[in-house]
Amino acid sequence: MTIAEVVPSLLSGLDVPGADNTLGLPPARRVVLLLVDGLGHELLRAHASHAPFLSGLSDRHISAGFPSSTATSLASIGTGLRSGEHGIVGYTFAVGDEVLNSLTWTRAGDHQHDLRKALVPEVVQPHPTLFERAAAAGVAVSAVAPMPHRSSGLTRAVLRGSWFRGTAGFGDLALGAVAAVRQDRSFCYAYHADLDTIGHIYGPGSEEWLLQLEFVDSLAARIASRLPSGSLLAVTADHGMVTAGERIDFDTEPLLWQGVRVIAGEPRVRYLHVQSDEVLSVWREFLGDRADVLTRAEAVDAGWFGPVSPLAIDRIGDVVVAMKDAHVLVRSQAEPGLSGLTGFHGSRTSAELAIPLLVHSVASA
C-alpha cells in the first residue's frame, strides 16, 4: 500500500465516484488529512514518548513510494498516482532541455529563474487531481498550507482544485483545518513543513527535531479536539529521513563526470543522462555496495516507480543511482547548501520509505 491510495480511500466515504477505499479507512463526511513533512514511521516509533497523541493511534504504516521525496509524494497525494504515472519523479529532474526544481519550480541551481511559463505546471503534470474530482462531485475541498504555496508551480501541478487558505504558523493551520470541515461532505488537506526542515538542518532524532515533534504532536491533538462530531483526522507523511553518513562528492570525482551529460535528483537518489554506455559500469564499480546503480529499464522493470507512462520515462534518466545505508552523493560546488545538510531522504531504505498512516475518529453526537 502506498501514499497514492490515501486520498482515494478518504474520499470514498464522501461518495466521490471512482474513489476506492483500498486502505480500509473509516468512512466520514468531514475529513482532515494532516501531512507532516518528514515524519517517518520508524522515527515516530523510535521516539514515541515525544508524541503521545500520535503514538496512541493505530501503529500502521504504508510506503511513500520512490523516490521518497516531497514533491513526488505530494503529487501522489494529489493525483492518486505513483511517480511513474504522474511524472513528478523527484526533487530535480530533466524536462526537455531544462532541469526543473519541482519544489520551487525554478531551474535547478538557480532559484531566481522561474519556470512556470516555460514549463507550465498543468502541462508538466496534466492528470486531473483528486481535489478536482472531489470538487466536481460536490465536496467542499480545501488546502491549508504555508502562504507562499498558494500559487506555486507545485501547487498548480499536483494540488489544484481546492480552495486555498494560507497559513503562517501552527495556530492558523489548526484553526483553518477545523474551519474547513464545518459543513457536510468536506475535505481538508493540511500541510506542515517544519519537522522536515529541522531534520535536514540538525538531523532526525536530534534534540531540536524531538522538540519539533512534540509541537507537531500537540498540533495534531489540538486539531482532533476541535473537530466537529462525525469527523475524521488522518495523519501521514511524505517520507522519512536518515542522518548522513559518508559523503561522496560528484563535483570532486572526475572519474564520475565522464560520459554524464546531465545529473539530476538529490543526494540520496540521482538521475544520470549519459552520452556513453560506459557510465553504468564506471559508476557501479566506483560506488560498489554503497548504492544500487540500475539502468532506467532495470529500475522500471523492478517496479521502483510503479507503472511508467510516456510522460515520465525520459525524466527518469538513463541511469538511476539509489544510495544505500546512509551514504549521500553530494555536489559541493553546484549544490553547496544541499550538500551541507545533516538529514537526507529520497532513496529506498525503510527509514525513508515507511510512513505512518494514523487515524482519529470523532464520535457522532
TrEMBL record:
SUPFAM superfamilies: Alkaline phosphatase-like (SSF53649)
Pfam family, one: Phosphodiest
InterPro entries (UniProt xref): Alkaline_phosphatase_core_sf, Phosphodiest/P_Trfase
Highest taxon of source: Bacteria
The name this protein goes by in its record: Phosphodiesterase
Gene3D superfamilies: Alkaline Phosphatase, subunit A
